[in-house]
Give the backbone structure.
Amino acid sequence: MYLDPSEESARSFFGRGITGPVSMLNLLRFRDEADYSAFPELAPPTPISGSAAYDRYVRHTIPFLSATGGSVKFFGTGGPYFIGPPDERWDLVMLISQSSVEEFLAFASDEGYLAGIGHRTAALEDSRLLPIVDRSLP
């Protein structure tokens, strides 16, 4: 299960020396039922699905993402692979764009944004986050 960056992955990300725009490819797998045990203050009065908890996270997050110049470029339903492990699936695929790594960090460290991150934690069973940089076709 991968929900947060490790120290090693953070060092690797910053060590890439990315300049200019950066996109983040998110692959997300939801829990059947959201687990708010680590963030009881955010828990709804009755249980909700992981998907519904993630929707709450997205609604909370968009203003903070927009304030730092970021945007959602793609937000779509996933499923099992066409090419890949047959027992692995991703429920949601999302592509986020930021103007720079610095703006991404400003977004990711904003106290207002972090106040709602518990919805993400409650929602997810597993995730992947791949920083990607545009390059020209050969």
